[in-house]
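User: Hey, quick favor. My workstation is busy. Could you predict this chain's structure for me?
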Amino acid sequence: MSALDRWRGKVALVTGASSGIGEAIAHALAGAGLKVVVAARRAERLTRVVEAIAQQGGEAVAIPADMGNEASIRALFAAVRERWGGLDVAVNNAGTGAMAAFSEGDAASWRAILDVNVLGVSLCVQEALKAMAGKAEGQIVNLSSIYAHRPQVPNFSYYQASKFAVKALTDTLRAELHAAKSPVRVAMVSPGLTATEFREKATDGKFSYESYFKDFHPLLPEDVAQAVLYILSTPPYVQVHDVLLSPMGQGL
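Assistant: No problem, here it is.
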């Protein structure tokens, strides 16, 4: 009997699931027998993720949504409740970033990062708690970054600040749910350098995907997905606070 068997047939939502870490998490959850809702802005990419999961015998549905838009987030969760009546697992993975010196940053870029990485996560947590009401068990997983613990990368100040905020929000939420004797657990996963599209997008193409592998082997999205499965595999009485993982060779 697998430690994940109790989640079989349950409903999970993964944001930012059109590629990278989110896509890998969606595949991992579907492989564990969960029904997975994949959400992101790129509808065509989501469709391909759903088709790939179906080919592997899993069940998934795509709901396009913009994690920087409150109305879109509310509509996403309304669609989840309408289809399945509630939610058991929420993985808040969607995130964005931009490369710029703090002294040269602009308000529009900063606002876009905060809208997705902080406000978007906050709204998703609120809606997830509503969707988990009455459940015997629920799990929220927020994706942060190793830099929420050890900031050191120049020119990514607002990205790192946003991930610090996710840590503060996650820790506070956990304390509130504990005080309320809620059965919903809250965890955070903080990966180091991971081979995804993020680096190329955040640097406007200054660093290619291949540049991840220049000095050492980075984490792969599947490695991060395994951390999420570990969290779910722990018994209901175990509260996993934070999983930090980084590739060998990444100096921290």
